[in-house]
């Protein structure tokens, strides 16, 4: 769900939307009244219209195919302006060159912290590596990424792009699923909770999966850029 608000302050998920987040998770995971997981993002009308003006595929798809569930005023969305092939190529390259090296830096930091026994710091850096890799692929392929740190949400959005991403995180047993949950929780708990615990063995396994995520993201992004280069050449 895309929620469009009229004030930038209302996009703050912690202050305004945490109860909705909890309610949706309870209705799906506990009560069972929702049969499919529901995620939501919040943007101002200006942000949505800017996205349409700059040809961001996500907002274009919403404008063309989205179904309004509730509308409190009659403010219309701007007409989409798709990117030119050359502009799309330049932006995809720019995103890749910014986000992929940024992810690798945090991965190097995680390896350093593991070697020094700083396990919580390593967990946070691995979270940041995965988060930046997901932002990278979403931006390169769709020119849009949600402004969130929820790794499970970003993973869901990214795995819709390419099935190869879904194979990165094995979920054959509870232990594997639990280690991904520890990685997801590391953004907050590894920094602020004295109760957060993670072992070196768990970090090594998570690190291997994050490294594999990096390889898959690099492959998909490279393929996407090659495709955009071909389209740009054909456009002249």
Protein model, in words:
This protein has 236 residues and is mainly α. The chain has two domains: 2-65, no CATH class; 85-235, Nucleotidyltransferases  domain 2 (Four Helix Bundle (Hemerythrin (Met), subunit A), Up-down Bundle), CATH 1.20.120. The protein is built from ten helices and two strands; from the N terminus they run βααβαααααααα. It has helices spanning 13-16, 18-31, 45-53, 57-65, 85-116, 119-142, 151-159, 163-166, 174-192, 200-235, and strands spanning 2-5, 41-44. The protein has a two-stranded parallel sheet. The mean pLDDT is 92.
Describe the SSE topology.
Blueprint: E1 2-5, H1 13-16, H2 18-31, E2 41-44, H3 45-53, H4 57-65, H5 85-116, H6 119-142, H7 151-159, H8 163-166, H9 174-192, H10 200-235
Parallel strand pairs: 1-2
Helix pairs in contact: 3-4, 5-6, 5-10, 6-7, 6-9, 6-10
Give short descriptive properties of this protein.
236 residues; Four Helix Bundle (Hemerythrin (Met), subunit A); two-stranded parallel ribbon; 3% strand
């Amino acid at each position: 769900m895309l929620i469009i608000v009229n004030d930038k302050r209302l996009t703050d998920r912690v202050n305004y939307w945490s109860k909705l987040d909890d309610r949706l998770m309870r209705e799906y995971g506990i009560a069972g009244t929702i049969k499919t997981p529901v995620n939501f993002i919040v943007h101002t009308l200006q942000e949505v219209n800017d996205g349409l003006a700059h040809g961001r595929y996500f907002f274009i798809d919403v404008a063309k195919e989205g179904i309004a569930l509730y509308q409190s005023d009659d403010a219309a969305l701007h007409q989409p302006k798709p990117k030119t092939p050359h502009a799309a190529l330049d932006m995809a390259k720019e995103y890749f060159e910014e986000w992929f090296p940024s992810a690798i830096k945090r991965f190097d930091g995680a390896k350093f912290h593991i070697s020094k026994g700083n396990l919580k710091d390593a967990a946070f850096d691995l979270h940041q590596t995965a988060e930046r890799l997901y932002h990278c692929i979403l931006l390169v392929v769709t020119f849009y990424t949600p402004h969130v740190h929820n790794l499970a949400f970003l993973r869901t959005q990214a795995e819709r792009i390419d099935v190869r991403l879904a194979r990165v995180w094995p979920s054959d047993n509870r232990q594997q699923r639990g280690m991904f949950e520890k990685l997801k929780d590391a953004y907050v708990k590894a920094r602020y909770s004295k109760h957060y615990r993670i072992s070196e063995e768990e970090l090594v396994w998570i690190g291997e999966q994050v490294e594999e995520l990096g390889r898959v993201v690099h492959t998909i992004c490279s393929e996407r850029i090659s495709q955009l280069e071909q389209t740009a050449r054909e456009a002249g």
